[in-house]
Design a protein that fits this description.
- With 440 residues, the protein is of the alpha/beta class.
- The protein folds into 4 domains: 3-126, Methylthiotransferase, N-terminal domain (Rossmann fold), CATH 3.40.50.12160; 145-257, Transcription Regulator spoIIAA (2-Layer Sandwich), CATH 3.30.750; 262-377, 2-Layer Sandwich (Transcription Regulator spoIIAA), CATH 3.30.750; 382-437, OB fold (Dihydrolipoamide Acetyltransferase, E2P) (Beta Barrel), CATH 2.40.50.140.
- It has 13 helices and 19 strands.
- The chain binds 5'-deoxyadenosine (5AD) and iron/sulfur cluster (SF4).
- Iron/sulfur cluster (SF4) binds at residues 157, 159-161, 164, 166-167, 201-202, 238.
Length: 440
Amino acid sequence: MSKKAYIATFGCQMNEYDSEQMAGILSNMAYETTEDLAGADLVLVNTCCIRQKAEEKAYSFLGRLRKFKKKNPDLMVIVAGCLAQQEGRRLFKKNPCLNLVIGPQGIHRLPELLREAEKNARRITCTELATSELPGHVRGLNGKRTVTAYVGIMTGCNNFCSYCIVPYVRGREFSRRGEEILKEIRGLVEQGVKEITLLGQNVNSYGLRAAGECSFAGLIRKIGEVDGLERLRFTTSHPKDISDDLIECFGSVKSLCEHIHLPIQSGSDRILRRMNRKYTRDDYLEKVAKLRRICPDISITTDLIAGFPGETEADFKDTLDIMRQVRFAGAFAFKYSDRPPAKAVTFSDKLPEPVTRERLSRLLALQKEITYNRNKSMVGKRAEVLVEGYSKSSPREWMGRARTNEVVNFSGDGDLPGKVVTVAVEKACLHSLKGSLAVE
Ligand code: 5AD
Ligand code: SF4
């Protein structure tokens, strides 16, 4: 009888992708994934530590595991991901129930490490960060998704934004070979996948440091030629690295969807400088104008940080102002939190919590208004939707995404998953659109 593995994933799409890779490895080792924590023989917790809240969530889940380990002392508990990298051996002290701690670059070593942990009942850590070679890569199980898939194209980050822990826990930038990426994508399309999202901490610097590799725009064009691939997306982009060549792809590569996630973080030049972002608000606005010139319907989403050290009310108003100017389709907004050893931890002018909290709620309120108005302007129009499956809210409705990335729930008959259909948009909600299958 096969053993059962429960996988809990916290954090970003990169972590979801890493979890899929680990699920693939575990299934090769005769572990079947389960949704039932109490019945699991192995629990893998893929953690995130990008913000304080993410870290707290991971610790609270690990705390819950104690009672399961008490009931079943043979339960194998693995902590993977960014918190594993950051804390390493210290995690064993905080959580005696752990068996194995693996950083993001140790994923491909899971089989040998797990075997060793099972055999010797030893506590093992694997948190070295490579400095000169690409960490191993394994194609994972695509989870419950069959219509869409992630494909990692690069890992790590060399940017060292002053608030960010990623370069410390994910290591330096490495790009995968273009041919390998294309082969993986062709294979996925043959299995019926219709939409690929290319993943990396900073996809725009794909290939920059790999001799003989093409640029990111070159890669997009090659993927654009893969027969049968309906849609292509990528995330995440750094505004400073978006080339004119890449912007041009939005006008010429048919499968490339009209959406870009372009984290701005702040609208104040002074704060952007202190964040070490290496662009100004005018640089950002210029990139947006170029994107909209080439692709007038492109939807632009972003990330924002409220209450960065030293942020004045005037700096904050610059952020509100640029939000109104760009009219982002959506934004993830966060309260600044210290993430040692990121540089901003040493800045002396931290803001009081109530100020940060109040600014975050103003950011969220403004974005809510912009997103809702944008969604309302789509009512009465038609959207081209790739159907992913049943809607979460109602099993009698379908769920898919527009090319501009809005979630669309709609009614309609037929066997629709995997098909691109036209939906008449009838209602705008805050986070989605509602409609019905359009009769052509
Ligand atoms: N505090 C708050 N937000 C942060 N982010 C990254 N580091 C921090 C931090 N220390 C946010 C940024 C980034 C997103 C993934 O998380 O907005 O784009
Ligand atoms: Fe962090 Fe900046 Fe790298 Fe993004 S670009 S992962 S925010 S250091």
